[in-house]
């Protein structure tokens, strides 16, 4: 279990420089779900990556819905038991703490806007990134996020998240 988490974070650490270099080379894509589909098409020659990216994006949509409706059931299914997270205030969270935050509605509620959504696949690990803007507990929040998914027993689950509050541009 610890080895899987360690490998996940290692993959994450190795992926970030590549992601930064790719963003420097390309102009920012349009917002919304279509950019992920366009990205998936780029990987169509690589076999299952496009299908996996679409699957992760569907899970991302479930994630958004579960938070907007404060639904702990969906959140419990999406999070791995060994989940580790960091909220926009820098506080570490376990699975139970995260579920309590969702139920309390301390995240962007209503209909937040998501942009810059991307998925990168590394075997049985996938990294999802993006920007969410919406009503937070203290007004409008802009949060850059990263979620790490791992496929275990033929099921994708979130094992780690990082959320960073960013200034409006």
Describe the protein's architecture and organization.
42% of the residues lie in helices and 36% in strands. It has 169 residues and is an alpha+beta fold. The chain has one domain: Nuclear Transport Factor 2, Chain: A, CATH 3.10.450. Strands 2-1-6-5-4-3 form a six-stranded mixed β-sheet, with helices on both faces. A hairpin with a 2-residue loop joins strand 4 (125-136) and strand 5. Helix 2 (33-42) runs antiparallel to helix 3.
Short note summarizing the structure:
This protein has 169 residues and is an alpha+beta fold. It has helices at residues 2-25, 33-42, 49-68, 72-78, 95-104, and strands spanning 79-86, 92-93, 109-122, 125-136, 139-152, 155-165. The protein has a 6-stranded mixed beta sheet with strand order 2-1-6-5-4-3, sandwiched between helices.
Secondary-structure blueprint:
Layout lengths: L1 H24 L7 H10 L6 H20 L3 H7 E8 L5 E2 L1 H10 L4 E14 L2 E12 L2 E14 L2 E11 L4
Parallel strand pairs: 1-6
Antiparallel strand pairs: 1-2, 3-4, 4-5, 5-6
Helix pairs in contact: 2-3, 3-4
Keywords:
6-stranded mixed sheet, alpha+beta, 169 residues, Nuclear Transport Factor 2, Chain: A
Helix/strand-derived category reads alpha+beta
Corresponding CATH architecture: Roll
What order do the helices and strands follow?
HHHHEEHEEEE
Number of domains: 1
The description of the largest β-sheet is: 6 strands, mixed
């Amino acid at each position: 279990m610890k080895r899987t988490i360690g490998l996940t974070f290692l993959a994450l650490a190795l992926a970030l420089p590549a992601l930064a270099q790719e963003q420097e080379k390309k102009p920012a894509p349009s917002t919304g779900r279509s950019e992920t589909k366009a990205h998936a098409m780029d990987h169509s020659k690589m076999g299952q990556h496009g299908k996996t990216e679409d699957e992760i994006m569907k899970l991302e949509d479930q994630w958004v819905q579960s938070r907007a409706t404060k639904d702990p059931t969906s959140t419990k299914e999406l999070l791995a038991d060994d989940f580790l997270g960091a909220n926009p205030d820098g506080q570490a969270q376990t699975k139970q703490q995260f579920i309590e935050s969702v139920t309390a509605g301390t995240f962007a509620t209503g209909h937040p806007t998501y942009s810059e959504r991307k998925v990168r696949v590394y075997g049985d690990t996938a990294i999802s990134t993006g920007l969410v803007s919406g009503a937070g507990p203290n007004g409008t929040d802009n949060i850059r996020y990263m979620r790490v998914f791992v496929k275990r027993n033929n099921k994708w689950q979130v094992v780690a998240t990082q959320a960073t509050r960013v200034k409006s541009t």
